[in-house]
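Severity: low
Component: inverse-folding endpoint
Summary: output formatting inconsistent between runs
Steps to reproduce: submit the following C-alpha cells with default settings.
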C-alpha cells in the first residue's frame, strides 16, 4: 500500500524498477480513470471490474485517481493498479485540479475515463491542460425516472 504524504494524496507503491517504469511509459497506452471512490456499490464494483480487467492487458497502463479512500481504492491497490488519492475533504475543486496536474504531468496519458459529474468536469480541464485528446464519460446511477422520452412530434 502507498504511504500518505502531507499533501493529502497517497503515493503509489510500485515493485517496478525505474528502467521497467520508463519502458512501460514508452510502450504501453496509458489510461486514467477518475472517480469519487468513497462507496462500494454498483458503480464502484463496475469500475473495479473494468480496471482489473484492463490491467491484465500488458499493452495498457492503468492509473486510477480517486477523490476519496475506500473499499474500491483498497481493492485496486491489491490488484496492483496504480491508485492516487486526492482527498476532496481537504482540497476544493481547484485544489484537486492543481494536485492532479502536478501528479499527472509527464505521465503520457492517452485516454481519460471519467466516472461521475465532478470527475467529468475535472477530466475535461485536465485533458485541456495536459493535451489528452481522448475522453470517455460514464454516467452511473441514472435513475429510472430520468429516462428521456421522445414523441413523434419532437422530431418534426
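Observed output (run 2 of 3):
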Amino acid at each position: 500500500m502507498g504511504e500518505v504524504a502531507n499533501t493529502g494524496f497517497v503515493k503509489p507503491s510500485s515493485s517496478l524498477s525505474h528502467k521497467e517504469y520508463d519502458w512501460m511509459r514508452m510502450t504501453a497506452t496509458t489510461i486514467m480513470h477518475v472517480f469519487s471512490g468513497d462507496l462500494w456499490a454498483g458503480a464502484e464494483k463496475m469500475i473495479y471490474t473494468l480496471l482489473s480487467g484492463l490491467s491484465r492487458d500488458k499493452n495498457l497502463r492503468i492509473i486510477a485517481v480517486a477523490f476519496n479512500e475506500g473499499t474500491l481504492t483498497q481493492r485496486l491497490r491489491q490488484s496492483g493498479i496504480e491508485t492516487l488519492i486526492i482527498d476532496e475533504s481537504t482540497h476544493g475543486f481547484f485544489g484537486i485540479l492543481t494536485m492532479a496536474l502536478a501528479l499527472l504531468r509527464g505521465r503520457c496519458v492517452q485516454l481519460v475515463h471519467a466516472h461521475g459529474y465532478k470527475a467529468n468536469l475535472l477530466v475535461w480541464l485536465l485533458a485541456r491542460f495536459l493535451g489528452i485528446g481522448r475522453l470517455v464519460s460514464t454516467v452511473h446511477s441514472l435513475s429510472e425516472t430520468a429516462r428521456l422520452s421522445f414523441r413523434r412530434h419532437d422530431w418534426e
